[in-house]
Write a structure and sequence with these properties.
alpha+beta, 230 residues, 11 helices, two-stranded antiparallel ribbon, 6 strands, 54% helix, single chain
Length: 230
């Protein structure tokens, strides 16, 4: 996985702006792994995909995520931070096939999630996902959904990361899923907009092209921006 330059990040943001979040995530990985066929990325286990996105986050924007979450009971805002390096310490070699309760299953993929992206009923989506990863065309009971879902989570632990929260105001405790794909895209978009602002400011001040401005090192561009805005 190669490091992404400022021109890479701008191009990635431009190409991904109109895409579905699932496609944005795969596009980000494809940009950093240009030799990997895009279609093959859609069939990666979700844990492998999320680990790749976590590496991109760490290499491009730093490993610590800082944000706010609202308590679901009292609405109190809680500040939190999370180090994505913790994700990369997890086992990510999800088994291509596993056996649970005598049934053969495979890890869920981005392609599977895309197939239920338009589904509004959570249980119906879970049924379809389980049919896809078990190759069984039948209805699963609630107990089977829960048991087999737990088996899939154990086999591919990075497929979903749950953050634990505790509200100091009302003692409510709950979990929230960490959407590393959405977080990374927010960082990419914010960085791209900052770069475009820099290009606009320096082009007006000095008449330089976008290529010339993006070729400047970060410290040098920052000094030019200070002088242009003085």
């Amino acid at each position: 996985m190669r490091a992404l330059t400022n021109p890479d990040l701008l191009d990635l943001w431009e190409r991904g702006s109109g895409l579905h979040p699932l496609d944005r995530a795969l596009l980000a990985i494809a940009t950093a792994k240009p030799g990997e066929p895009y279609a093959a990325l859609a069939d990666w286990p979700l844990g492998r995909r999320n680990a790749a996105l976590a590496r991109l986050q760490r290499e491009c924007f730093g490993s610590v995520l800082t944000g706010w979450v609202a308590c679901p009971q009292c609405g109190e805002l809680l500040e939190f931070s999370f180090d994505v390096g913790m994700l990369l310490e997890e086992r990510i070699d999800a088994a291509a096939q596993l056996t649970a309760d005598g049934r053969s299953l495979r890890a869920l993929t981005s392609r599977d999630l895309a197939s239920v992206a338009a589904e509004t009923d959570e249980r119906a989506a879970a049924q379809k996902l389980l049919r896809l990863c078990s190759a069984q065309e039948r209805e699963f009971t609630n107990e089977e959904l829960e048991a087999l879902g737990a088996q899939l989570a154990e086999a591919d632990p990075l497929a979903e990361t749950l953050l634990e929260f505790a509200c100091a105001a009302c003692d409510q405790r709950w979990q929230e899923p960490l959407d590393i794909a959405a977080w990374l895209w927010t960082e990419i978009e914010a960085h791209a907009r900052r770069l475009l602002h820099d290009v606009h400011t320096l082009a007006l001040a000095y008449g330089w092209t976008e290529h010339e401005i993006l070729s400047l090192s970060e410290p040098r561009r920052a000094v030019y921006l200070e002088m242009a805005q003085a």
